[in-house]
Design brief:
Radius of gyration: 20 Å
Strand order of the largest sheet: 7-6-8-9-10-14-15
Shape: globular
CATH class of the largest domain: Alpha Beta
Distance between the termini: 37 Å
Number of helices: 12
CATH topology of the largest domain: Rossmann fold
Number of strands: 15
Largest sheet: 7 strands, mixed
Number of domains: 2
Mean pLDDT: 91
Order of helices and strands: HEHEHEHEEHEHEHEHEHEHHHEEEEE
Structural class: alpha/beta
Low-confidence stretches: 1-27
Strand content: 15-25%
Helix content: 40-55%
CATH superfamily of the largest domain: Response regulator
Length: 377
Amino acid sequence: MRSIPQWLAAFTAATAFSAAFAAEPAGSGTILLGQVAPFSGPSVKLAEEYNLGARTFFQALNEHGGVNGQRIELRTRDDRYVPAETARLAKELISQDGVFALFGTVGTGTTLAALPVAVAEGVPLFAPSTGAEALRTPFNRLVFHIRAGDHEEADYLVEQLAVSSLRQIAVFHQRDAYGKAGLEAVTKAQDKRGFKMVAIASVERDATDVAAAAQALLAAKPQAVVLVASYTSSAALVKAMRKLGYTGQFAATSYVGGKSLADELGAEGNGLWMADVVPFPWSDSTPLQREYNQAMQRAGVPHRSFGSMEGYLAAKVFAEGLRRAGREPNHARFIAALESMQGWDAGGFRISYTPSDHSGTHRVEMTMIGPGGRFVH
């Protein structure tokens, strides 16, 4: 059985205690959300961080009376990053638990597996942690995003490499829907600028035997390698190529998992670039960042991450949509309420939905892993 970090166990216990004894307004109820994500296996940190940020927000919200007198409860299921399991568990959460919405699925292939279930049941699929274009085109009125898409992210990343005169670019990706979508996005961004892909290497999801990939990429002499793989595979590749003498630039997409990748790399992560699609978690420069940091501190969480910031932001946006839906929310009212959020300010981070566009945001920025695994913004 996988051990739970001490701080996470303590937070879970505190959350359960406060939820059990919080005063409920008369006539209040509970809005159930269902999160299907990889709560075990190599990608576990991505799910745990997202869930932690969301639960931190919902706990504080519930302690102050919830939304329109209703508490929000987040129920989880572990899909082990297996799409077939995602679909089965999503259906179980809807049919057996009666969740109001699916919330915070983690992964491209897994979210794509959950989508037909959500559509068949008429249930919103809210804030999936993926930028896959297949979830945006064609437009689906049940799906709402809070992060920029893969193509926007790749375009920004390639542009930053180009500005730094790094035009000989290779891609390292995992062999699944996420990796293929990322490769397609980077290729499109390069084609747009007239760049030629110098090399492509791939591995199975979460694989750490990357010797062949490292040799193939090194032989092409790229100025930069874009990482579109799990943090375990990406860290293994960076270490392998550095050991072989590679001195070029590594750049990762946001879904790789910044904090997790930095932890895996240690000192060898110094200088790695990473695209990010949520506010920088280690800053207090905006109201949202200050609110997030104060909430994490109150919850006794010792570290910050892009993943928990994403979960916190997703929970905050969901709560605002629920507030606008009124005291008797249903799916139709909730969707219409979200679509009224055109330029809504979450605290220095704006979210926009319309009846024909649920992108939420197009914001992408760049960060870098600095000395000691600290991120530099």
